[in-house]
Each structure stands twice: as structure tokens, then as C-alpha cells.
Amino acid sequence: MQTATPVPRKATRPRADALRNRERIVTAAREMFVEFGPDVPLDEIARRAGVGNATVYRNFPDRDALVREVVCSVMDRTAAAAELALAESGDAFEALERFVHTAADERISALCPMVQSTFDKNHPDLEAARERIEQLTEEIMDRAKAAGQLRSDVGVGDVMLIASQLSRPPAGAGCDLADRYVHRHLQLFLDGLRAPARSVLPGTAMTMEDLRQA
């Protein structure tokens, strides 16, 4: 008696409509986390995404999983923009400018605080996305320094921290006000990074390790 050899099953790919639903959920969650913080009811996210509650939970079993997906997706898009700037721009400082302004548009400053308050900040997905951002930022800055366009006494941590602070609305101010002025203020900051430096900075350049330990 011969035993039939089992035929390996092909892994099923998510249907296009399922992928669209997941994308809508992540987009709605990103918008609402920025507006209301990470504690916004998942029912409200489902309503804005135009899907049922069951669809949200089918894609994301708990709030932490959704928050993590949103933060990682923002970091991934920001990193992709940095890679594009490196590839397309022949001007090293212009690549840095494009990266910083894109990070502000992605609202990375509003989403990053959720990493510390809602779930494990050492999750492998989050660490991978963060390392990619850090490496690309350092590469952009090293290129600008080598070209003599970026002052030598600033570190990756300096840029990440100040860009984050400038693109986040101050206490008591709405997001609309911050949106109107964020790129203006970021450009003032970026102009201050240009070489030759007009002043001597106190202290030492901030590294990403300094930023993580703060």
C-alpha cells in the first residue's frame, strides 16, 4: 500500500480588499493618534477608516499592535524619503533638508512619544525601523559635512531632537497652528546648521545613544 505524498499548499496571499482595509485602518489611526493621542477609542478609528470593528481586531489583536504598526509605517516612509533624497539630490545639504521636512510632514514627532508610553520600545520591528532612520540620517549628515556644507559640531541626536521639538505643537496650541509654521521654523533651524558656523556651540554633539538614554 502506497502512501500518497502530500502536496505542499501554496501560501495564500491577502486579498486586495483586505490589504486596502488594513491600509485604511493604519492611515485613520495615524491621523487620530496625532489629533487625540494613543488612547483614542478603536471604535472611532474603525469609523474613520470606514470598516467594522471586527476588521480592526482581525488585523490588529490589541492596541499595542496597531500603535506599533502606525509608528513603524511612519518611520518606514520617512526612511524611504531619506533614501530617495540621497539618490536624487546632488546637493548633500538639500538631501538633509528634504529629509527633515518630510519627517515633519509624516508627524514623526507626534508619534514617537507613543513608543515610550504605550508598548515595548525594544520590539524588533520598532528597533529595525529606528535603526534604519538613524543610519540614513547619519549618512546624509556625513555627506553634507564632507561637502563642507554642514557644521561639524552637530550630531545625529541634535538634528533628531530639535526637528522633533520644532514640529510638535507647544502645550495649549492646536495642530493647525503648528502646521502653518512648522516648515518655516524648520528652515530657520536648518539654515543654522550650515557651514561655516557663526558661533561655537556649548557642550558636545548629541548622539542617538544620548537621545535614547535621556
In short:
InterPro entries: Homeodomain-like_sf (IPR009057), HTH-type_TetR-like_transc_reg (IPR050109), HTH_TetR (IPR001647), Tet_transcr_reg_TetR-rel_C_sf (IPR036271), TetR_SbtR-like_C (IPR049445). This protein has 214 residues and is an all-alpha fold. The chain has 11 helices and no strands.
Helix/strand class: mainly alpha
Low-confidence stretches: none
Structural Rg: 21 Å
Total DSSP E strands: 0
Number of helices: 11
Strand content: under 5%
Largest sheet: none
Span between N and C termini? 69 Å
Mean pLDDT level: 82
**What would you call the shape?**
elongated
* Fraction of residues in helix: 55-70%
SSE succession: HHHHHHHHHHH
Describe it.
By secondary structure, the chain is an all-alpha fold. The chain has 11 helices and no strands. The mean pLDDT is 82. It has helices at 16-36, 42-49, 53-59, 63-88, 92-105, 108-111, 113-118, 124-146, 156-166, 175-193, 208-213. It is 68% helix and 0% strand.
